Amino acid sequence: DQQVKQNSPSLSVQEGRISILNCDYTNSMFDYFLWYKKYPAEGPTFLISISSIKDKNEDGRFTVFLNKSAKHLSLHIVPSQPGDSAVYFCAASAGGNQFYFGTGTSLTVIP
Amino acid sequence: DAGVIQSPRHEVTEMGQEVTLRCKPISGHNSLFWYRQTMMRGLELLIYFNNNVPIDDSGMPEDRFSAKMPNASFSTLKIQPSEPRDSAVYFCASSYQGRYGYTFGSGTRLTVV
């Protein structure tokens, strides 16, 4: 059973516009969330994180928002650049070592 | 540090053959994870080790899959016998304490024909 869901398999955005990637989770015990970025033929790399004590975390062009009541998080990329084209995975943990990953969203930024 | 090193990068094998995937975690990391990436399930945890001890192998799909971590710098994932449905990209990841995310290797693309 998928505890972390990314319902949009793909997303296309024009360069310079905002990209919004969404992630939903079912386990209310999740208290730490990550976004990973994956280029073809490479492993996922850490992008940004957020703890459940916050509702927003910002790092340059990347901002993650957490809505605990809705069990929803989103990643905003502003402005989007062609180099942002990749697959993005969200992941969640309820403590301990194990993270549960979503199925990923493939972002294409069109020049 | 060279990061998490996986070998081979690509493996093509015939159904029924034994396949061994290898992983060298980052020095000093005490947790190691094996994931499988498929279109349907995304990144699926197969097994993870803490201080070389298997902690949770509930994600291992069948008895055909086994994993070992004989020491802190090496782990293997073995499939015997392999089947076409095992074709996927297998990732190894390591972390220190695990709480703040993992560092992934580049993956092994396995094709079973």
Structure description:
The complex is a heterodimer of chains A (111) and B (113). With 111 residues, chain A is mainly beta. In chain A, strands 2, 4, 5, 9, 10 and 11 form a six-stranded mixed beta sheet that branches. Chain A has a five-stranded antiparallel beta sheet with strand order 1-3-8-7-6, with no helix packed on it. Helices cover 0% and strands 55% of the residues of chain A. By secondary structure, chain B is mostly beta strands. Chain B is built from no helices and eleven strands. At the A-B interface, strand 4, strand 5, strand 9 and strand 10 of A face strand 4, strand 5, strand 9 and strand 10 of B.
Give a quick precis of the structure:
Chain A is mainly β and 111 residues long. Helices cover 0% and strands 55% of the residues of chain A.
Biggest sheet layout of chain B: 7 strands, mixed
Distance between the termini of chain B: 36 Å
Helical content of chain B stands at: under 10%
Order of secondary-structure elements of chain A: EEEEEEEEEEE
Order of H and E elements of chain B: EEEEEEEEEEE
Task: Describe the global form of chain B.
Answer: globular
Percentage of β-strand residues of chain B: over 45%
Q: How many beta-strand segments of chain B?
A: 11
Determine Rg of chain B (CA atoms, Å). Answer: 13 Å
The oligomeric state is: heterodimer
Most extensive chain interface and residues per partner: A-B, 25 and 29 residues
List the total number of helices of chain A. Answer: 0
- The assigned structural class of chain B equals mainly beta
Low-confidence stretches of chain A: none
Measured on Cα atoms, how large is the radius of gyration of chain A? 13 Å
Number of helices of chain B: 0
Give the rounded overall mean pLDDT of chain A: 95
Structural class of chain A: mainly beta
Strand proportion of chain A = over 45%
Q: Could you give a short account of the major beta sheet of chain A?
A: 6 strands, mixed
> What's the count of strands of chain A?
11
